[in-house]
Amino acid sequence: MAPSKAPDSSRRSDRSRRAIHDAALALIAEAGYGRTTIEGIAARAGVGKQTIYRWWPSKAAVLLEAFTDLAERAAEAAGEPRGLPDTGDLAADLKRVLRATVDELNDPVFEGPTRALTAEGIVDPELGAQFAEKLLAPQVQLYVTRLRAAQEAGQLRADIDPRVAVELLIAPLTHRWLLRTLPLTHAYADSVVDHALCGLLADR
Length: 204
What we know:
Keywords: DNA-binding, Transcription, Transcription regulation. The chain is mainly α and 204 residues long. It has helices at 9-31, 38-45, 49-55, 59-78, 90-106, 108-123, 125-152, 162-179, 186-200.
């Protein structure tokens, strides 16, 4: 008789971790951040509460990792390349990316966790710093790289700071999304690009 193989603890841990991620995201979407608990996540994932506390110190930490994993999986599924598109048409490239951002912010799968992490990051500086480091900073750097390439190609003014210029593009979308005062649409994203580039483009 062939000897039986010992259970693969790493695979079991991966399955449990993914189940916890999915449970946390589902509960946030269904009940909101305030009503989501570690006990609820554990019950939904089919694991013991102690398993969660062994890997994460809080539900906010669970959500941060779950959302990071979700974003990575979504990018892989969409076959998105690293970096912003560079077709030579800066306005078109930026509009394409900001439209995709609008779609993501309006998608309930992403909206709930993003709002929860944003709100919790305000009252929890450590979580806010992790949120910025793991999710926001890498995305901002992609914009900076694309704008710097346009600057080197002579398309943008030489005296602008690409990091500040990024904020002219993404801050209006974030502001409108946070306040919910007006619809967040593709047309608005296109308008933001057009207005920002009025002050950024080099003289022709």
